[in-house]
Structure formats: structure tokens, C-alpha cells
Amino acid sequence: MKNRPAIALALVAVSPLGISASAFAQTTVTATANGVDVKQGAITMRVAAISDSILRVRVAKGGVFAEDASWAVSPEARAHSVSAKSTVNGFSTAAMVVAIDPATMRLTVTDKAGKVITNDAIEPLMIQGKGFTLRKSMPQAEHYFGLGDKTGGLDRRGKSFVDWNTDAFGFSGSDDPIYKSIPFFIGVGGAGGSYGIFLDNTWRASFDFGHREENILSFGAPEGPIDYYVIAGPSTAEVVRRYTDLTGKAPLQAQWALGYQQSRYSYMSADETKQVAARLRSEKIPTDVMWLDIDFQDRNRPFTVNTKTFPDLKGMVSDLGKEGFKVVTITDLHVARAPNQGYRPYDEGMKGDRFVHNPDGSVYVAPVWPGPSVFPDFTQSSVRDWYGTLFQKQIDDGVAGAWNDMNEPAIFETPTKTMPLDIVHRIDSDGFAPRTGTHAELHNVYGMQNTRATYEGLRKLNPDERAFVMTRASYAGGQRYAVTWTGDNSATWDHLKLSVQQIINMGLSGFSYGAADVSGFAGGPSPDLLTRWFEIGAFYPVFRNHSAKGTPRVEPWVDGPEQLAVRRRFIEERYKLMPYLYGLAELNARSGDPILRPVFYDYPSAITMSCDQSMTFTLGKSLLVAPPPKPESPQAYDVCLPAGGWYDYWTGKRSGVAQADTEGQIQSASQATGGVKTKGDIVTETPRLDYLPVFVRAGTILPRQQVVQSTSEIPRGPLSLDVYPGDDCAGDLYADDGHSMAFQSGAFMRQTVRCQVTAKGVTLDFETPQGRFSPWWKQVAVTVHGWKGTNAVKSGDRTVASIGDANAQTVSFTIDTPMTATRVAIARR
Known about the structure:
Immunoglobulin-like, alpha+beta, TIM Barrel, 8-stranded antiparallel β-sheet, globular, 49 strands
């Protein structure tokens, strides 16, 4: 009996005992060029090295592998491989060692030093009918993140989740499933560092992180392929970058998409829309986008306009454009069933047989906002191509972007809130052989393919401009087509906290451009809640204020001048940070690094810090934002700052332990501690409504600008560079025209700036810029923080006038924008 569990784990299937006879069959192991095939009875497991740090694991349940096709991973990525070195029980790559127990088919992956990255549980594979469950060991020290914008807190450990895109209006902080299905998670804190697992299966997958079985991590689906990827780190950043290598990077968004955005369900007329826009300008509230929800349409029909309330949409868009506003309009995927009414989407769709079908072959009809509606069959490339052409009128009217809502797909008057599982889709795309599939298989990718049709349509119709699409539902890889938000949240303190955790996990899941409705969509926020939400929302990747019909208004001015002053100040701060924020967006397009990150992303030791970090995050690597972990409470709280030293963003002075000597020499954290980095500092903060703690990493060179009322304005004066000396001191400057595709052909400017603390002071090195774009700034205003004493500044051999401020502990000077490699020396006198 001692050996029986190890044998039975290979396959649990249809017999009354739960053990298939094939589980006791002889195992054969065959080496391949990039991995190994393991066959045991009717089961074949193929483990292949896609790269030195990525494995693809496929299991053929009946000896035949599922079709090698994917909605998430491109054929090029799936076909990529590296040579593997065979070992006695597996193989190795330059970064990993793979071992398979031939008796049980247990898979163990370690790094080259033998530290376990991930290993299977005693019963690694359980097959029940068409379904399967994969089981892996769960170390005590490991924490789990990802899966998109799930509820339940930041860490997934101890919880269970289901992937099934759901219209979840009124969801609580623990409801599941909600809007998206991203079957990818990251393990953090194990012996082998961080790693990721991506299950490429579109069915109703489930994930359990030690909830049902102690110390067992399990995931599976009721049907579909057993096809998953193991992505090694060892850092969380490397895992995310490699995951986006597989599923795609988010495209660089237009700069205006990073500005403040005003929305409501709904601004009911052109006059109301223009009045709100005019108030934003008169109150000097920087804003880039006005959104139009479904009431701008004729009878809620997509691709129409209510000409009674919006008699001249093109003219309105043009007028708002002159004031620096872009307009984004909603386009839900349902098409009104409107025969013989001259409604183009329905007429063309019916003529071309472009809608999904019932099992009997008839067109599926169901109620949504326009009433009885039909639904494009987005799993066909020809249907996506046709759907994209429907946006021509919006492009002609100057509309800047599209909002794809209700695309789970949401259906009214049914307990499931969506289509029946037997609805028929036709697949003709992405390497799949042409066939039909049920909604049970394709439900979770339907919204993603809707956004794909929209994005590709906008790109074809307006090829010189970047396409902006926002979606509510999606699947892994959907970041290639759309930004997203957390759906219909609520105006509560719990949802404010949840929004930070959801956006962090979306960023780790590939969706770097995450948002939550500032104020909460349902209900109405108190004045203090709304103000705090503006403060935190100012650091979201996408910053949109949105609220439901029938709720109190939540525009920035609604609670009087004192609250407005705080809200305006944080919106302005976002615009000051626009050069930094836009640089993070461009970095994300190249690397996959999220814009908003958990602290442990760049500072791995933070995962074990003692402070409550449930609300703390970083914006890029350099800014740490630390809202109260109990945002409704006035209780003081501790902020754990990772090792290396930090500055207070608002005062510019060092936080925690002072790091300057009595002679005024700026020191790095390692210098100040005799060459050994500290464990970091703990700063105690007392919540105030007009204040949000923000810290800057020592070693940061932070670009900023003057406040503008929209990104269409050219900032006045020079670019500001705030230098916070410390270890690894560097920063990147990036600029392009902010809206076109010209950056892809070299019309950009990217410049690295480095600083170094020396015995004499600080040197600042500007590298030669890349690209051929001329940025808006002609001069650079530099402020070096943490400075004491007098100074002398030279750029090359030229003396530069400077101003020292003993109280602020800064030295400041302005130079012409360096267009060649340039050194600036700031020395003590």
C-alpha cells in the first residue's frame, strides 16, 4: 500500500476506484530536440523548451494532442524552441533542469543550482471524463498573484477562483467570477524565486491555491486542451516580461490616454457634455477626454447617434477638440434586430451570415440595451474585418476612441447573464482548422475578439493614428487590443482599496493600462471618499471618473471649493509627472513591465516586510505611493520603504534615516552603511485628507513638466529633472508626437541620464539621444536633492549659474537640452 499513491497519481479517471487501468502501464520516455515525450498507457505528456526559461507542457489524453492553435499565443511564439540537453530523467536548458518521475509522471523544474521552481504534487494529473485537474505542491512561503482583476485581496493564497467572464454589476470584494478570464498566475517567494504558470484553455477553468486542499495548488477545466506554460524568473519582472513575450505587449497608447478623463452614464445631450467640458476648463481642472455612454445613441443602438440630443456630433467633437478634449464613445457588441429599418449593422450582418447561431441553425436573438439583439460571430476573421468597417462614421466624426462594454457577453432576462452554452460559433482564425464551437468553449474569448475587431478596424481606418479601445471583458493576450477597467464597482471604501489590488494584479497579468471608476460606479461617495479616490486615481495607469445613472454627480467640483482644491492639485500633479508616466508607457510597450506595480516587483524583499502593504504600490520603479491600508480610518500606519534609501516626493528631503554627512557630501545608502545596504526604513504616517504619502527611490532621475490643461498643450518652460542621488542613479527621457505611429519608424527621442556621487559632489551624464524626434523642451532645469553646503556647476568646461537652497537641501540650475553626450559636474566649494 505504501507505493500505491505514487502510482495512482499518474491518472485518475473513469473507474469506480478513480484509477484508470492505464495508470499501471509501462512508461516510455523519448528525448526530443527541445525536451521530452513521456508516454504511459493512453497518456502522453510532452514537455518542450520554448526558451531557456519557458516550458510548454501538453498532455494528450487519448494519445492524440489537441490542435496546436491558440487565441492567446502566436504561432511564432509556440513554434519557438531551444535545444535541450538530455538527462537520465528529463533535460536541461541554460536556465532550468526538468526532471520527470517515470513511475508517476511527476514534473519537477529547478534552476541550475537545484532550487525548486515548481514541482508536481503526489497526484499530478487527474482526468475525469473530458475534464482534468493539474496539481502542484505549494510551499509554505509562496504567495500567488495575477489572474487579472479578481476580487479577494491582493494575494491569491488560500482562495479559489473560476474563469468565466461575468456581468457582475454590484460585485462585492469577494465575489467571483467577474469580468475577465486571464488564466495566468505568478508564484512569489519560493526557493527558486518567482515563476509563472499560464493555462491556455478557454473553457470555464478553475484555480485553487490551497483552499480545498492544504498545501496543494490545483488548476483545470471541464474540457479542452491540457496545455500550459511554466515561466521561470527568478524575478517577478522577468516572469511578466516573458509572459508578455508569449501573449503580446500592449501597444503604446496616445499620450492623451494618460490624462484625466471625465465620464458619466450618461451625459444626455451635446449641451450637457459641452457644459461639463466648459466647467472643467473654467475651474482649471486639467482634462483630456470626455466620454459618451449609451444615451448618445439612437435607442441604444450601436453605431447610431440620437440626433435629437446630439444634433451635430461631428461639430461637437470639433468644438471640444479646439478646447483640448478628445471624445471616446461607447460601442457595445450587440446589434439591434431591426429588419427593414435601414440599420446597416443588422442588414449587412444578416446578408453576410455574420451572427452567432442557435443549435438549430437559426440566428440567436436575446435582449440587451437595444431590446432584441443579435451578436457578431467574432471568432471568424471575416466577421472581425467587417465589424471594423462599421467604425468609419465615428472616425469621420473625429471620435478618438472606442469603448467596448457588455462584452462578456452580457444578456438580460436570464439567470446566467450570458448566452446559453450550446450557442454555436464558427471558428476560422488563429491557426484553428475551420470548425464550429460551442459558447462553452468560446465564451471567455468572445469579448477579447470583440476588442480585436474594434482595434484592428480603427487601425485600418486610421492607419497613421494609435487606436484607443477600452474593454470590460477579455482573455489572456487581450492587452494587445485594449486597455481595461475593473467594471461596475461601488462607491465604498472597500472598493477603493480593492481597485488598487485589482489594478496591480491586472498589470502582472499583462494588462498594464488598468483603471477603476473613480468615485465608484454604483451608489454615491461621501465627499471624503471621493477626494481620496481622486488622490489615488491620479496614480492609476488610466484615470477616469465615471458614475451610474441615478447616482449623485461626482465631477470634481461637486463638494465645494475645499474638496475641489485637493482634487485639482492631484490631477495637476499627474500632469506634472506626464514625462515620467509617458516614459513608463513606452517602456511597457517594449518590455511588458507594468506601469503600476506591487512593491515586490522591483524590490523582492518587500514580500516579507512587516508593514501592511495591501494599498501600497509603485508607479514604475521610482515612485512608491502609500495610501492608508484602512483608507476610511484616521489611524496612523507604518510604511516600509525597501532598502536603498528614499526621498519624500513632496518635500524633496530624505525619508527615514538621514544619509548625508556633516560636510554636506551626498551619500548612497550603501556608502552610508559602510558598503552594506540596510533593510530599509519604516516611516509612520498619519492620514490626512489633503495628503497622500509618496516617496522617490534614491537613485532616481525624475522628469517632470509644468501643468497644462491637456496634453495637446505644449508645456511652458524647460523640462524639469529632479535628481535624487543614490545607488544605480539613472533615468530615461522619452518623447514622440504623442499620437501617431511615426515613432515606429524612428520619430522618437530616447535619452538616458545617469548620476554618480563622487568625493567632490555629483556628476550628471546625458547620453547621446536615440531617434530623430525633437522634443518640446529646449532647456532642462535640474534640481539635485539632498545637497548641503555651497556648490559650483560646470557643463563641460562652461560654468553654469546655480542656486542653492539650504532649507530645501537642493541645488538648481538650467542648461540647454543636451543633444550629444554631455557631463555636468556639481561640486562642493
